[in-house]
Amino acid sequence: MYCVVLCSVEKRRQRNMASPAKKMKTEEDKSISGYLHNISPMKVSKKNTRYFHATIQSGREEYHRVVVFSPEKRDHYEQAASVKKPVTLTKAKRSISLADSDGYDILCTSSSNIEVSQPVSFFPRGPPDAGPVTVANVLALGPRQHVAAVRVKILAGGTASRIVELDGGPRELMELRVCDRSGQTKLTLWEEKIAMVQDSKSYHITNLYTRKFDDKTILTSSRHTTITEIEDVGEPDMLEPCVDLPKISGCVIGSETALRYHCGICRGSQSNFNSKNEAHRCNKCNMMQKCTNFRTLYAGKLLLLQNGQELSLTLTNSAVLHFISEHLGGGATDVDAIDCKLIGLGNVELDVGSNNAILRIKVSSDGAACVNSVEESQRQKDTDTAQCMGSDPFEDDDDALRLLDL
What we know:
The protein is of the alpha+beta class and 406 residues long. Helices cover 20% and strands 39% of the residues.
């Protein structure tokens, strides 16, 4: 009994000695006054929670990110930002900022309020635009940091791709080598953003986040990432070595391409989607939207015959999009037309990532005849064996009949 009491006292003591970071995460009923700027459109989180964010100027040059989980109050925030009058956010929480380790973010829930503020001692001034940072700056950051913009070059070679299950369906992610004159790192792109870049070209890329991999800081895209091609940004004096992608050659004997639709707001996978309709209600976030707001993503399976053995490989969205661009003129959504074109390619050479994910499809240049099945491959081997052993003794019908008469 005595031991149990001591343990309970010790647990309460440890809770009371929580770190400042943990205390900050639970602080409530705090107020902050200032000017509101940059009210975002309404967004939906992965947990289907609607929210929007803004920036509050709480000093002459002091700014904090505000995340509001009360969609019905967005008009009040928009109005306060447009009239440039100071407001006070009450019953708000303060959370450690992911973008500034020395600062904090403001979290407003349904119990938080926006009220007219007493005059403040500074004038409204929009937050400074965050310019692009260098790769060297990125490498000095910790994980989960927001990077407003970078200007980098996509390096050829060393690309890695894989398929993961997310939001009710398979999703493609690709890891690319990127650089500028200050250094080199990696960039992970998701889904349709993969097709926006090409090897050896440079891009202005916004709204990225950092993460750690093998003790190195790398970049990953978000749903709000934008990609714009720019002039060449150069390379560092020395580049890190890369490992070439494995290649698989063979004959295409089967193809199953599927076209999937995903919500432009919550990214949820859709069922019973009819692109001919004017609108569709999302199966996940329940938001009615125009059909043009839903994103199309390809997936599927490719059967390849290699040395008499069937191989099943995964078709990725980026591989199908590149194939459509090169062989169907782009913009095709008829999966039957895509499959017919694929099985008519004959011998191909595939760039393959992890989990047999196809990155690129290239038509073989050797012009070899394509064997269309395992059985045909075996028949071809039998014919070659017979030819090596000499002519068939029964190839002359008359000789065969004479032998039968004996």
